[in-house]
Amino acid sequence: MQLECWPGRSYPLGATVYPSGTNFSLFSKSASAVELLLFDDPDDALPQRVLALEPRQCRTYYYWHTFVPDIGHGQLYGYRVRGPYDPERGLWFDGEKLLVDPYARAVAPSSRFSRDAARLPGNNCGVGIKSVVVDPTLYNWELDNQLDRPYASTVIYEMHIRGFTQHPSSGVPAERQGTYWGVIDKIPYLQSLGITAVELLPIQHYDAQDAPDDLTNYWGYSPIAFFAPHQGYSSGSGPLAAIDEFRDMVKALHRAGIEVILDVVFNHTAEGGAGGPTYSFRGLENRAYYLFNGDDVGAGYADYSGTGNTIDANHSIVRRMIMDCLRYWVSEMHVDGFRFDLASVMARDPNGEPMENPPILWEIESDPVLAGTKIIAEAWDAAGLYQVGSFTGHRWAEWNGEFRDDIRRFVRGDLGMVKKVSARINGSPDLYTQPDREPNRSINFITSHDGFTLNDLVSYNNKHNEANLEQNRDGSTPNNSWNCGVEGPTDNPHIEALRQRQIRNLLTILFVSQGTPMILMGDEVRRTQGGNNNAYCQDNAVSWFDWRTIAQQADLLRFVRLLIDVTQDLAIFRKERFWLPPDHHDSPSITWHGVLLNEPDWSYYSHTLAFEVRSAADNEHVHVILNAYKEPLEFELPDPRIDPKTQAQWLRIVDTALASPDEIRPPTEAPAIAARSYTVQPRSAVVLLARPLNLV
User: Fold this and answer.
1) N or C: which end of the chain has fewer CB within 10 A?
2) Beta-sheet pairing, 620-627 with 608-615
């Protein structure tokens, strides 16, 4: 039914609910006609009402708008936008396509959703994605707010909403498996592990069909609707179920003292290259949303993301959308921060060149709504721009890829790594040279979703991605991994013992280093992907958390829990300034050693490093020994006394060469070390904690 429209107004963008109806506003500079379609059901092939936006009344500058009385929260809608189809000029209008509102707060995909229908000519209303009108004020947050936890006391757990509880062994009720509510059921596990923040792989609604053949895009790095939580992670079927369940999850995590960090994708969209589907941006104003190969838009999309297109994040319209989106997730959805996927893409100008002061990055840094949030950059892109240590701004934290690579290589036994590893342990001051920068802005990690799991890092020399149907060409080739002698699973007890030790070594270094530690979902119980280091399309047991490993790997789980508990309990590992040499009078101080005290071996052939950190103000003294050599070595121990007037002794907290439960002990149970030296076994790490005798 064709209806006349009321003019409405050009702001705010998106669908805004008022007591008497809803205002709709959409940006399109080059469109010649816009229709607002209203639907009753996600599977409707035809709209129930069509409102043609009359340009003289319903267009202000480049904004098309209308007010529709007597509709509100839960109304399904979409757009058809007509204009020139002229790819040589970068114009891709298709007046038959159902388009998602870029500001849609929720979406309702058809049960017959088809990526191909969005790619091929013709009407796709019955198999497309409807936008949903949302009134955010109707949800009861029950006094919830962001936690604003400092980086220095943060332990991040990178996890996938679906993969966390989808496995049948999760113990979560079937209808809640793989959902936002499923995460709520597992909050006690996260608390018992010592996690203070979850970093969620993309939950902005994405195209699950963007994968080879019959596989599924599991990771979610294929966004369609930036404001809308992914519908597939909802246990309900209604168009508003996902947004309500997401808020329930955030509220429950906050009550447990756990922050929520979203992995956001503002570097590309699911529309891909020229042959890709038209979901929203391409059909609204292609030339505004994407970067092209130079000034010639007819030459095709620039691709700095490896996906076929690149968002023009510094275009004024796109920049406003990104900022509005981030503010929405903070103010209305109560998230605590963001990790920006391929953030260096956002530093590129219209010609693809890196900008010295990218407007979007400075806006994110300085925005008052975002001031209390964590903003974390993956400071590289898929086209070779690598900005770890040089990313724009003062407030940004960074995924420290150098930490990952250098620690992996040292533990593997590579040469020439000791000097680099000392810098990584000390918060990477060689990378982060700003004098006022906190060391905890370095997000330290050994593994992430992208690459081997921790188990696979010590079990495979080579990637095994055949199941991805890309002839094993996908995924990173240099993984800095070592299989300890056998490729893949083995029953050899000596190799298994070595793998367990290497895992403990990697985790120990992670948690005794300055910086904010991040661990990957399931690494604490040796989750494996069978050597697949790019499981983006494996929505199956390859990627899911198998909860049976909780019992199978109980010793490792105990190790991780105690390691987090001990290190987070010590103020020395939660300092917001770099450890300095002893000749600086600031507290705390760090002293480097080798096999002999005060004689660190920085040579190319060295495999050993020891260091002690003192904090007189906190009455804490820690000594760490790392032996990546193939033979046992005797290390001299420093005087354990913090105060020369007080007697003290060393307590052995960690020795990764020992069997459970002796490989780690809490301070109340740790054995004392009276000798002036300690034999450190091959490929192992030792952590000693000084305690005054009257406290032992």
Assistant:
1) N
2) antiparallel
pLDDT averaged over every residue in the chain: 96
Q: What does the pLDDT look like over 635-672, one tens digit per residue?
A: 999 999 988 888 999 999 999 999 999 999 999 999 99
Range(s) of the domain holding residue 32: 2-138
Closest CA to 30 of 66, 83, 102, 72: 83
Q: Are residues 514 and 612 in the same domain?
A: no
In a domain, 387, yes or no: yes
Does residue 251 sit in the same domain as residue 366?
yes
What CATH number does the domain containing 496 carry? Answer: 3.20.20.80
DSSP state of 521: T
Phi and psi at residue 380, to the nearest 5° = -160, 170
Q: What is the pLDDT of residues 133-173, one digit of tens each?
A: 999 999 999 999 999 999 999 999 999 999 999 999 999 99
Catalytic-labelled residue, pool 303, 378, 655, 663: 378
Compute φ and ψ for 617, nearest 5 degrees: -65, -30
- Provide DSSP, 442-465: EEEES--SSS--HHHHTT-SS---
If you search the block for the tokens 């980086």, which residue do you land on? Answer: 151
d(CA 233, CA 177): 9
- Domain assignment present for residue 295? The answer is no
Catalytic residue among 312, 341, 398, 612: 341
Q: Say if residue 354's pLDDT is above 90.
A: yes
Tell me which of 94, 114, 138 is where a domain ends. Answer: 138
Same domain for 369 and 411, yes or no, is yes
Q: Is 96 a catalytic residue?
A: no
CA distance 514 to 509: 10
The residue among 88, 107, 138 that closes a domain is: 138
Structure tokens at 521: 């979902």
> For tokens 């480049």, what's the residue?
62
Cis peptide leading into 223, omega within 30 of 0? no
Do 611 and 539 lie in one domain? The reply is: no
Length of the chain, in residues: 696
**CA torsion sign, 309 to 313 to 315 to 320?**
positive
The pTM (predicted TM-score) of the whole model is 0.97
CA 13 centroid distance within chain: 28
Q: Strand 397-399 and strand 442-445: pairing?
A: parallel
CA atoms within 13 Å, Cβ hemisphere of 637 = 26
Active site residue 341: yes
Other beta carbons within 10 Å of 332:
17
Euclidean distance between CA atoms 329 and 593, whole angstroms = 47
Rounded Cα–Cα distance for residues 348 and 452 (Å): 29
Please state, in angstroms and rounded to a whole number, the distance separating the CA atoms of residues 193 and 68.
Answer: 50
- The Cα–Cα gap between 117 and 114 comes to 5
